[in-house]
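queue> pop job 88
queue> type: inverse folding (structure -> sequence)
queue> payload:
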């Protein structure tokens, strides 16, 4: 790992000091909000950059004293020198990780879409398992889950379920879940005990706080329909569910709560989120190109993970990770171990790229 130049560390510290000084001087509310956000983002990096600069200076001083005429001071300086030298690599790596460019949407809330793929009823049941896994994981993280729309499977589970998950840094952790998830298990309806393979797709879309997407009225068609609950029972007698079709792109969003007004707002919000993601991918050509080599590319055609029930095994194919703890992972209690491994691998690749470009 290449050493971070002092000039780079000083740039971070100088910018942090500049932001802090400006915060104390400005009275513009919009600028205060922007500066406060930048201050919060910079503080952990600046604190560690200052520490690294200080340790490097102390190391240099200790080395000079080691070579001085005073033998007693030289011995003390030697102890300090080797102690600092032992601390530096871990701190260097920590600062390197903090300096890795962040995805602009990492702190965003998300829209989670889980759909049954190949495998019929078993695929719908698996989609239900996945959604419960994410719901439990969200609960453990202190996040909020709100279901937007549901299409239930004939024997349980979901043909499709869409929900929002809000909290601190949701997209940054769950973006790795996009793709095709494959399950291998013996269905309850299988009398011969044969292992059945089916799949479900997961899409994780960022939901930024302020989505500046213009939707022209002439570009959308709004349909109302009757809301249905579990078992096909009508929730009410009015056509309250709303479906919005964006004609230029063919994107369709729905919401089926009791209030038609609320449904219009929610369906429009989901439309803007999907249009934002579309625009985000189209405009950022560099990111789109990089996706080919990155884990968690978000490509829904990519088989990202296999859940093998007979072996209690989960394999993530992007990083060759295999864990024999399927029961705990599918319950959501050990999903963090998979996500942490994916993040660590992504960070390692980015650090390697930074070294190459240094």
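queue> result:
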């Amino acid at each position: 790992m290449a050493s971070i130049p002092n000039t780079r560390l000083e740039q971070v510290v100088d910018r942090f000091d500049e932001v802090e000084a400006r915060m104390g001087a400005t009275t513009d509310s919009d600028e205060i909000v922007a500066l406060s956000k930048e201050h919060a983002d910079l503080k952990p990096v600046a604190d560690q950059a200052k520490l690294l600069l200080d340790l490097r200076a102390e190391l240099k001083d200790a080395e000079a004293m080691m070579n001085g005429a005073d033998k007693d001071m030289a011995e003390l300086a030697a102890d300090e020198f080797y102690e600092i030298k032992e601390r530096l690599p871990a701190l260097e790596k920590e600062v390197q990780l903090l300096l890795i460019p962040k995805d602009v949407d990492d702190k965003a809330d998300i829209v989670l879409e889980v759909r049954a793929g190949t495998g019929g009823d078993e695929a719908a049941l698996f989609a239900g398992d996945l959604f419960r896994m994410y719901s439990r994981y969200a609960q453990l993280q202190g996040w909020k889950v709100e279901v937007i729309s549901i299409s239930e499977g004939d024997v349980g589970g979901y043909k499709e379920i869409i929900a929002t998950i809000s909290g601190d840094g949701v997209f940054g952790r769950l973006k790795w879940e996009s793709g095709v998830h494959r399950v291998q298990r013996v269905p309850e309806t299988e009398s011969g005990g044969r292992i059945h393979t089916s799949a479900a797709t997961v899409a994780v879309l960022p939901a930024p706080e302020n989505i500046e997407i213009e939707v022209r009225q002439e570009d959308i068609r709004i349909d109302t329909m009757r809301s249905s609950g579990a078992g096909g029972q009508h929730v009410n007698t009015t056509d309250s569910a709303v479906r919005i079709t964006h004609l230029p792109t063919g994107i369709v969003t729905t919401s089926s709560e009791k209030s038609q007004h609320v449904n219009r707002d929610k369906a429009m919000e989901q439309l803007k989120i999907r249009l934002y993601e579309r625009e985000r991918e189209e405009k950022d050509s560099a990111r789109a190109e990089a996706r080919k080599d990155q884990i968690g590319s978000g490509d829904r055609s990519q088989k990202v993970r296999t859940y093998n029930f007979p072996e209690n095994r989960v394999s993530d194919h992007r990083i060759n990770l295999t864990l024999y703890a399927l029961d705990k992972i599918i319950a959501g209690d050990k999903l963090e171990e998979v996500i942490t491994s994916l993040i660590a691998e992504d960070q390692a690749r980015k650090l390697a790229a930074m070294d190459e470009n240094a």
